[in-house]
Design goal:
Layout: H1 3-12, H2 47-53, E1 81-86, E2 92-100, E3 126-128, E4 133-135, H3 138-142, H4 144-147, H5 168-174, E5 186-188, E6 203-208, E7 213-218, E8 225-227, E9 232-233, H6 239-244, E10 247-249, E11 256-259, E12 263-266, E13 285-289, E14 294-296, E15 313-316, E16 320-324, E17 337-339, H7 343-346
Parallel strand pairs: 5-10, 9-12, 14-16
Antiparallel strand pairs: 1-2, 2-6, 3-4, 7-17, 8-9, 8-13, 11-12, 13-14, 15-16
Length: 379
């Protein structure tokens, strides 16, 4: 079995079968995540952070910082450099300037959209809507109107062929804020060849070389982190807007998809990009958050330890303090951050706004979408 097929198998173990709900294993706690920061350089378990993060970390096991040697060959386009930086809480320290390749170096991207309502899950990727993970098989598209209780959904023709963005022009027209009305009821997928010059879009980030705790947990205002195989961990995809435009912005089995402005990026952790073996009772690491703490894969449902803090992090003897990704269904890889991020990052140098400030993935704002129950466009 190839590496790609192994990843697909692992990803499918996290999915729901079509039309059967998968309950969330962790509540969204964004409302509790503040924005203030600290400059004392303490660990998340310090007195200043414990009231908001409630983590079991201590100063001896907190984190050894970013280990650039963990990135897979080709994941970074150049050797990381170290430079002085100021963090969001005012701490003056050093940061790594890292440029990720924008394409997973350990597996191919896709598939995304199937061709027909007779296709199996092997012919398509997945869809994450904040509550469930759906296999993008033919049955999913055949039952969209029932799934979302809206007769405006009809994403296939009389022959059972699914409407899919088939050209670069269609892809770009479906990925802008005002989705082309002709592309409503389309499955939106992109490809590497449709990006500028047919090349991956690299992303440069600034990440503290050693994490520095914030006074309270905070939500990321831009990208959440980077994977060890060269991909940006993006903020949540704008699901409400995507669905309001009667589109499905398909993800592949690794929880990533293409945007014409940001290239390939991740919205759900499904077991790809992992490096090394997990210690007993834990899961493997696959990336770093923007505050410099490691990010590990989600726990299987029912196997979560009781020491996870509000940002889904905890401390272990081997790994120190680290986050665990949310279940893929939540369309939010990292819950919140306990550490300070680069102040430059907030200005776009180290992450930028969600999806880089470009048009959302396959989305239109609700006020630009067809009204609920509207008939699908003529194809």
């Amino acid at each position: 079995m190839t590496r790609h097929l192994q990843l697909r198998s692992a990803a499918r173990s996290l999915r729901r079968t079509p039309l059967l709900a998968v309950p969330l294993t962790a509540a969204l706690l964004l409302s509790s995540c503040g924005t203030s920061g600290s400059d004392d350089g303490t660990d998340p378990s310090s007195e200043s952070a414990s009231s908001s993060t409630d983590t079991s970390a201590d100063s001896d096991t907190a984190s050894t910082g970013v280990d650039t040697a963990l990135f897979l060959d080709g994941a970074l386009t150049e050797e990381p450099t170290v430079e002085d930086c100021t963090l969001s809480g005012g701490t003056e320290t050093t940061c790594y300037r890292i440029t990720v390749s924008g394409y997973p170096v350990d597996h191919e991207t896709g598939p995304f959209c199937p061709d027909s309502i007779t296709d199996s899950a092997e012919e398509g990727g997945i869809w994450l809507d904040g509550e469930n993970v759906y296999d993008l098989d033919g049955a999913f598209f055949e039952n969209l109107a029932e799934t979302y209780d809206d007769d405006g959904w009809l994403m296939y023709d009389e022959n059972g062929d699914i409407y899919v963005t088939e050209t670069q022009e269609e892809f770009e027209a479906a990925a802008r804020p005002d989705v082309d009305p002709d592309l409503a009821n389309h499955c939106v997928e992109g490809s590497l060849e449709w990006l500028e010059n047919g090349e991956p879009i690299t992303t440069e980030v600034l990440i503290p070389t050693t994490p520095v705790a914030a006074e309270s947990a905070q939500t990321s205002q831009g990208n959440n982190g980077i994977t060890l195989d060269g991909v940006v961990i993006a903020a949540s995809a704008p699901v409400e807007a995507i669905l309001s435009a009667y589109t499905i912005a398909a993800f592949d089995d690794c929880g990533g998809h293409y945007n014409p402005f940001e290239g390939y990026h991740m919205h759900g952790a499904t077991g790809c990009s992992e490096v090394g073996e997990a210690e007993d009772g834990d899961t493997a690491m696959f990336g770093y958050a923007m505050d410099g703490y490691a990010v590990h894969s989600p726990f299987e449902e029912g196997e979560e330890p009781d020491d996870l803090d509000e940002c889904n992090g905890h401390t272990t003897e081997t790994a120190g303090y680290h986050y665990h990704a949310n279940p893929a269904a939540e369309n939010q890889v990292i819950e919140c951050l306990v550490g300070q991020t680069s102040a430059s990052a907030e200005g776009g140098d180290g992450g930028g706004p969600p999806d880089g400030g470009g048009p959302p993935d396959g989305a239109a704002p609700p006020n630009g979408a067809p009204p609920a129950g509207a008939a699908p466009p003529e194809q």
